[in-house]
Design a protein that fits this description.
With about 325 residues, this protein is α+β, with helices and mostly antiparallel strands. The chain contains eight helices and nine strands. The chain folds into two domains: about 100 residues, no CATH class; about 170 residues, Immunoglobulin-like. Helix content is about 35%, strand content about 25%.
Amino acid sequence: MVDVDSALRASAYSGKKGRGSKGSDEKVSTELEPFDPSAHASKEKADAVSMWIVIVFGLSVAVGMRYLMMPTLDEAEQIMWLLPVLLVGLIQPLHRVVVPSRIYERFTGGNWFRASFLYLFTWLALSFALVNPPLADIAAPHLAGDIDIKSEPGIMDDTSFSKGTYQILISEDSVPITVGLAVRDNVDAANSTMTMRIYEMGEDDSLVLINGIVSQLASSSPSSPSTLFESVDDEEWMRGLKKNTLTGKYSGPKLAPNSQDIGMAWDICSGGCGPGTYVIEVVLVEADSRVPWATGQNTWSKEYTLSVLQAAS
């Protein structure tokens, strides 16, 4: 039997012997590498110079894209982000041209890696500031939550909305259909221009045809679209029929979740709509001095389809 103390002693002895047998002439170096203050200061100076070169380069690219490139375009295009990303390849040649050789020799692969990310973040940060209010505005007005319809007798609950198509099942030959929507913008939705046409596919006449400033279209007259929209309770919108299980209250219509949204609604069929396909074309245009495009406008458009189907009796 071997006790624990003897086993530990034997293990320690064998370890020392093994290390000595590998090379007794070799000694482990315990000396620290020499520290050269002048070389360290030179490296820090080179890193600082590189940082400012990259920051100025990123700022220049962002300003050039905003005031030179964007005024030549009609809308956002792929080149707006592709070109600045490709300019990462100019970082090392730019250093070779601008920086003296004695400083350039201090740069390593780690410097180019850090410089690339610093350039991208600098360009992105300034670009966000230059294209958004109050300096500029590239966001077009749009519908806050697509479209919705009011719940009416004869419209069954088995309705669905997907990818711009609203499928409506009716239990009668014709039912009144009220279409609602809400205009939203990051600056001033009321001053945008709206053009909307609603028609039944296969028919030449328009059921609804409007064109004008949103604030004028959504006037507060008794028969205005905004008055009709406000007369519809939140729980009456088909897509807004979602009740909170805790509070027992409806979540409100999905088409106007923000208080700044400008809601409007229209009765599209005076005598009721029968089975068929109805098309809703919406175009929103914003003209502002802060818009950087060549047209001076932000434009948004979308087409919706109401597919009204007769339910099987």
